Amino acid sequence: MIYTIRTTTGREDIVVDLLESKIRADSLDIKSVFHPAEIKGYVFIEGNLVQIHKAMLGLMHAKGLMEKPVNIEEIRHFL
Fold first, then answer.
1. Rounded to the nearest 5°, which phi and psi values hold at 60?
2. d(CA 75, CA 27)
């Protein structure tokens, strides 16, 4: 499932980098993390909620996780 992380505006790329580092270091089962340049303040992450919550523990510039999954059709044009 794909979920949305709310971030500090302008810090989306930092959040993506921090998430990718944590995912690698902790061997978390996260499929993808991406930030469309057209959307400010949001990062999309694909995985299960338990793994996403682990990846977000102590994550700087992340304001929260929107726990309602995003339909791929809603974001397909960004991919």
1. -70, 150
2. 26
